[in-house]
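Handout, page 2. Input:
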Amino acid sequence: MFAPVFVLRSARRASLAPWLWLSILLAGCGGGTTGNGVAPGDDAASSDDSAIAEVGGDDAGSDTASSVPPPERLACVSSSRLASGLPTSTYGAVEADLIAIIPPYSSVNCPSDSGHVHLQLDISGKRYDVAINVESTTGDQVSILTKDLPAGQLPAEGFSNVGFSYVNTLGVHSTEFTAMSKSALVAKLQSELANASRVAIHGLTYSDGTGIHDIHKNGGTNHDGAVVVHGGGAGGADHVLAFRFSSDVF
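Output:
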């Protein structure tokens, strides 16, 4: 069992909106739930291939990837303390600070289940959940690929419905991914994200706006999920984590 590492910080004490139905949001993953109401397994895929335009918030942030601050970790919060400010059931990206990493079943007080590594993000003092599959209830093994992309200006914090494609954005195909056991993938994620600070999470937002999931291949060329660690690659490049199930061929 892994426990999340955190450093207490007083700068983020803003009140958080109540969390209501996280069990419904991840019900599409299949399988049972924990006392926190989070279900393990597969997330639903989308076949929409249409392009997605970036909307909402500022056009860009004022910082460059080279100025990403060192990581800070806070204790994870309970589901009831998650904010609900994201658009609902929408593909796109959440730009935020990564402040907690929660391995499967490692917490009784925070969102945690057998099939996902959960992350918690901070946007202006408000917490949001991220669910990354590390196993499938259908028997599909989860595979991972990492790749660096050139760093650019940091986007503003918040949500935008910008698209992401493994084929078009990363230039990769299914044969380039590495299949891992659940325990190996959990360890890999913890290692890859240990020094992550500012991240972009591409996927599908929860139906109540408290987080984002479907962080994997989603069928459509512009709806693939990914974790982008700004400044986390060689020479300050953006470092991308991409995921697919064994049944995904592209």
